[in-house]
Each structure stands twice: as structure tokens, then as C-alpha cells.
Amino acid sequence: MQSASDRHEYPAHWEADVVLRDGGTARIRPITVDDAERLVSFYEQVSDESKYYRFFAPYPRLSAKDVHRFTHHDFVDRVGLAATVGGEFIATVRYDRIGSDGMPASAPADEAEVAFLVQDAHQGRGVASALLEHIGAVARERDIRRFAAEVLPANNKMIKVFTDAGYTQQRSFEDGVVRLEFDLEPTDRSLAVQYAREQRAEARSVQRLLVPGSVAVIGTGRTPGGVGRSVLGNIRDAGYSGRLYAVNKAFPADLEELDGVPAHRSVRDIDGPVDLAVVAVPAEYVPDVVAECGQHGVQGLVVVSAGYAESGPDGRRRQRELVRHARAYGMRIIGPNAFGIINTSADVRLNASLAPEMPRPGRIGLFAQSGAIGIALLSRLHRRGGGVTGVTGVSTFVSSGNRADVSGNDVLQYWYDDPDTDVVLMYLESIGNPRKFTRLARRTAAAKPVVVVQGARHGGAAPQGHAVRATRLPHATVSALLRQAGVIRVDTITELVDTGLLLARQPLPAGPRVAILGNSESLGLLTYDACLSEGLRPLPPLDLTTGASAEDFRAALSRALADETCDAVVVTAIPAIGEGSPGDAELAQALRSAAERVPGKPVLVVHVELGGLAEALSAAASTAPRAGTTAPGTAGRDRDHPFRPLDFPAEPPPGQSDSAGDAPDVPRLIPAYPAAERAVRALSEAVRYSQWRREAADPGRVPEYDDIDEKGAARLIDGLLARGQGLTLGTDETGDLLGKYGVQVHRALHASTPEAAADAARTLGYPVALKATAPHLRHRADLGGVRLDLADEEQLRRAYTELTALFGKPEELRPVVQRMAPRGVDTVVRAVIDPAAGAVLSFGLAGAASQLLGDMAHRLVPVTDREATSLVRSIRTAPLLFGWRGSEPVDTAALEELLLRVSRLVDDHPEVVAVTLEPVVVAPHGLSVLGASVRLAPPPARDDLGPRTLPTY
Question: Are the beta carbons of 375 and 362 closer than 8 angstroms?
Fold first, then answer.
């Protein structure tokens, strides 16, 4: 309890779990009067040198007055935070508000002195850096804008904490003390430092799970079968390179080994460190296991046990307690209800999963939230892993189950700079933090492909067990935003594998031009049509005829790859049944030989499996081999299947690694597909991703406009919000706010009577338009609620009479009069702030194109000039803007400027939660905004701008 003099309740929202530099976790929370004993114990474990650096003098122990001062805070002018592990302090930080004279003060003073103390055993873990981020956020919340710190010159570690933070600062030296002053307003550099620290810490936390030096499987049954015993066997059979232990409290006291693995009744009985524990005990026993692991110093847990959030409210409560308990000891969790993890590195060979076989080693990182989908993906990669020049496999695999702690974001952080992973494949059923995911995906995609398939995308709710914040955005919009971040979005796990294999094996295409060659004219035409359907530019197929030899294939592929008008090549091949036709190995060698000579262009193979039909045809054909003979190229094949379909070698050539990315001189693998459509779909995704990579290298800029009145808009918004928590602005207020950002809305004057309509027309000037603005008629010219080009008062009165005769009384129609705008293309511009994804800008053509067909393009705010250009061109109906069928092109430059101005408005003022401009008539010269609406509300809370913190459940 705080004393009566304390002015604020305990700020529970300041509590947070953080990942430290070494991958462990700590809890940051406010210090209270109940922490006196913890503080004294903590101080006793700090070295004399650290105490000297903190107090500038020998200070062996805290006095009662010190303890009272350091535990009694008002949470406004005096604040203390502690970092804890296992409930005990490992570091503290405090600030005291001061005035211009350096003495204690209250608001409006906006400066505070800050000081740290970190236990020596935990120095170098990044604890002070994390505490600085959190105490800085607290200070900003309490209207403190600047910190001052006095540090002894020899205390280099603490000086580095301040100088490396990235804030704007001043440094001085006086009376033997270094004085640092720095503003707390986040800067581009401070955010970059924070994100870099976040990446290193979270990547390290995942690395501790995937590269453990020792593993204990807790819950290993005494008899064969069961989850724990299966996982133990899988780890052992994979050839795990570290120390492995079997743990079960029911083991007899004299049991020393189980299946050749050291056996123990408790993890605490193990002599030596345990880096990773696989927990496979019933959910009710997990808390005791977590406590034992935490006390023994286990670094991370894989919880395969079920019975958590997927089972209902009681399970959700157990899951929350599990996460809190594990993090209190500095451990991270994969799971619960997880399928497990795999690392195929020759230095690790860890299969801590329910997969009975270790997948082939390779360059693909695989993440699945679902165990069942994880099994399917591993199985498909195993079946499809063979290629023309070798195999493709998995570097690491994570199946997160309920992903109560470690999520896809954490694994992305690890894969970003993992040298063993070239391609990332992810199956997601929910995205817990879309803002962070898009930020991490954009950075990762700039270095290596990220391919995602999202399940449960039309269900409207996250799967049981997943704690996620709701988004109001439709799935199509989310997909568009992921593509903007460089994510390759596919719809099925088949496409996920198809695309992943191509990207893991082949270089990125430089463009959409595709050469097609093969021994089947029909298959070539199918491939040609598929290319057109996917937006590629195929060259006329080259038919080599069914009698083509391996040399014919090699020569044709060599010519195609050397052709400067070609960016990629698709080779189509059907099984041959005649003498002189190439065998599989011969054809594979020919294609490999040609591809190696021009390594910069991707090559794909489409092969058709005929199965028993090929054998039947060969038996009936006059060219079939006679009894006792073997057709050329078929030596060594199964006698029961002398003419099997193309089956390229699964084993790599002698001396070649399984992986395509191990060394520059290792040839890339050529992927083979059983259908033209699948090969072309994978190629089209590679083409789009390659284009994104080129554009991402120069993302453009957010332009400045001299006529934008940001401060005036802020004053207007503050005044309007003073009326209430949320409101839709009226016509005049909307025009005023948009006008602050250079967006002019055509005046629309209400016309409750024919006389009022005539007066409005005289004010605006003829010609005019008469519109019904009732909700059921708004923007519905097709229903007859709009009359255009009214040249005089007679036409206006006649139109008014017709409207009221058709649709009812004026009070029902809500007619308005508006001056005619130049003719053009009607478009719509929208912006909305989604609580999960952030601010989104959307564009499309007004009417059926956007409302019926959903032809809208979307970008995250703030939008750059290059993104505005691509936004206009991304919709399917974009040709209407650029002179379709001889029409005059419209002023897309003015349209792009409008998009940029709306983006700036929403980005500068998050209180603007929704903007709609409809219609925006884009003419050959200029544009006219004929309708607009704006909604204001307190902005949704953002967790991407504050200090680093793990999600809470």
C-alpha cells in the first residue's frame, strides 16, 4: 500500500515483461513500499564499485531513511522501477522531478534527474537500456520532457547506456562529474536503436530454444508410447549433438537410464545446466515443472501439453498463469499445445517434436501455428524436396501451438539474420500484432523471401487459444497490406510449398518475360495461357516435339537463357515412350548443364505424371521394347514400371551439398511441378516479389506541402473533440478541417424547397447539379437521385419537381445543389485507423467497381510519393484513368497529390479515425472533391511507439 501522501494509485499499466540482450526475460514494474526487504537484499548483492558509481562515495549499506525514500513514490514527481527475475530485484531506476534550480519540484517543471543501479551479475544483459526505455515512457506520460544524469567519468558502462540510446543530448563536465542532459522525445535514431536492440534480443531468445546445449524431456513415460517418450525417441534418433535427459517423477529411485538416455526424477537432480525443457505432463502438473525448471536455470520451454486456452475459460486462465510463471524466471515458452521444434543443422540435429523423422536439411525456415498443418508442410516438403540437381529441405521448424509467448514475430527476428535460412515459409491462423509483423516482414523481405498462407481468414474470429486484438479490416485489405510489406501472400499450403521451393532453388527473375519450351505442344499452350492469366508476358512456346533428345532440350534451354528478351524459362516435359527418348537422369543432366552456364535466370520444369497409362501405352505401341530388351535411358529402372514419369534424382551429385546456398559455386536446384498452373503461379509470385525488392530499394519520400496548416488543424480538432468522445463532422467543419491540408471540397447548399434550390444556384452559379443525399440514395446516380448540367432556373425547378415526385418529400430526400464540376472519372478515397493494423489509405473507382467488385487498393499510412503512384495503378480498373479505348487520360498527378495530403492528415492527427472523399471526379486537368465526411475520436492506443515489451495475456 502507498502512504496517504501518495497522489496516484499503483500504475499497473507500467508493468511489462521484456526480453534482454542475452535472450532471457525480466519483469519491469513500479517499486512500492512492500519492496523494502527486496531492495535491501538487492543492494547487498551489488559490488562496492557499483555502489560507489551510484552514490559517488563508499556506501556499504542502505539506511532506513534511504529505504523509505527509494520505496515511497507518488508515481508523478518521484518514480522508481525495478527489473525482476524470479521475483527478486536485479536492477532499479528512479527519477525525481526537478526545477530550473536543480531542486525537487512539481509540474509544470518538465525535467527530472535519473539514476540506475544494476546488480553486477546482470550487467551486460541490456537491463539498463530496457529500464531507460520504460522510465522514459513513464516520464513522458507525466509530462516530463527531459532527463538529466550525473555520472562519474570512470563509469563507462552507464555513460554508454545514455549515449547509445539515440536521444538528442548535451554533455558537460564539471566538478569531476559528467552531466548528461537529453530530450525524451523519440527520434528516428532512438527508434532505430530500440528496434535494433529488440531484434537482437528476440532473435537471441529464439536461438536459445533452437540451439540448446542440453535438453530435458519432462514427462517421459516408463513404457513405450505416449507423447513424452515419443519426443525423447525423436530427439535421440535424430542424433542430437547435446546432452539429453529423461525426466519423470514416477521413475524408480534406482533407474539410471531410459532407452540409453540418463534418467532423473526431477530436473533439479540433473548435474549440470539444462538449456531447454520439453514439457509433456498433464496441464495440472505443469506449474510445478515450471517452478523446478526456473529454479534450476532452464532457459526455455517447449510445452506440448494440451488443456490450455484451446479448452475454454479455465484453460485460458491456466495459460496466462503459465506465461507469467515462466517469464518470472526469465524463460520463454513455445506453446502450449505445441507440436515442437526442429533444427537440422549438422552442429545441432534437434528434433524436439512429434515428427517421427528428421526432415532433410536445407535452407527453408518453416513456422506453423497449427500442429496438423505443420505435419502437412513437413510431409509435402519431404515429398517435393527432390529437384533436378538435388534436394531442398528445412533449416529450422517451429510449431507454436497456442503461441502464448513465442510467436511468428519472434521467429522472424531470428530468421532475419540467420545464415542458414534463405526462405521463410509461415502458416498463420492469427496475427497478434499486425503493426509489428508488417514492420518485421518488410525488413526481412528486403533480405530474403517471406511466404505466408493465412488460415481462418474468413471465420471472423481467431482460433481457440490465440489471444489477438480484433481488426475491422476485411481479409482482402489485410492481404494487400502484407503485400505492401513485401510478404508473398498465397492461399493454400500447396502454393506455399510450390513458391518456397522455387525461391529456395532459383534466382529472382528480372522481369515478367517467360520463355516456354518442351516436348508437348499442348502442355506448352497450357503454360502459355497460365502465364497470361497470372499477368506474365510469355513468349510463343517452342515445341521440340515428342522425339526431342536430351541434347535438344539442352540446346533449346541454352538459347532461351541467352535470349535478352527472356527473364525466366519454363521447361515442359512429358514421359517419352519411344526408343531414343531421354531417360530421367539424362534429361536432368542436360537441363542442369544448360542452367549452370547462365545462372542468373530462373528455370522451372513442368512434368506430367502418366503412371500406369504410360506403361499401358508402351505395351500396345509398335515402338515398345520387345521382350528381353530395355529402352534407351531406362537401365536400372524397376522392371514393373519401365516407363515411369519424370522423377528427377533426389540425391545431390557427388560432392554437392544438400543446400543451394552453401557456396557460390554450388549450382541452384531446378524445381519440378506436376501442373503448369502451379509452376506459373509460383513464378508469378517470384516476379512480383522481385519487383517489390527493386522498388523497396528506393521507397520514395513523404512530401512536404507549404500550404498545410498542421497546428491550425490540431487546434480545430481539439476544439471539436471537446464536445464529446467521438463525432462525425458536419459539412462546414469537414470542409474547414480538410482545407487545412489543402483539400478543397465543392460547396453543397441545402435546398429544402424549390425556392431554396434556386437561391443556392444563383449563389454558386450555373450550371449546377441537384442531388438527393438521403442514405438510400447517396452516391446512387443509377437510381435517378442525381440531376446534372442544369443550365438555368427553369431546368432546376423541373428537376426538383421530378425528384420529389419520384422519391418523396424534400425532408426525406435531403436535396442539395452543387456547382457542376468538370467531367472526368469518379473515384473514392478513404482512410481509416484500424486498432490492430494502424492507419490505412484506400483508393478505387466510385460505384460498382469498388462496392460490388471490391476493386480497391490499400496502403499503410504514411504513404510515400512512390506508394501513391502505385496505389493509383494497383486497381484492376486503372486503365479507365489512363485513356482506355481512346478516352482522354485524367490528371493522375493531381489524384496522387490528393492521396498524399489525406495520408498526411491522418498521420499527423491520429484523432482523425476515418475520412471518406466520394466522389472525387478526376478530370483531364485537376480534380473535384464533391463529397466528404470525417470522423473524430480519441485515437486507439499504439503499442509500437512505446518501450520494448512482450505481449500480455
Answer: no
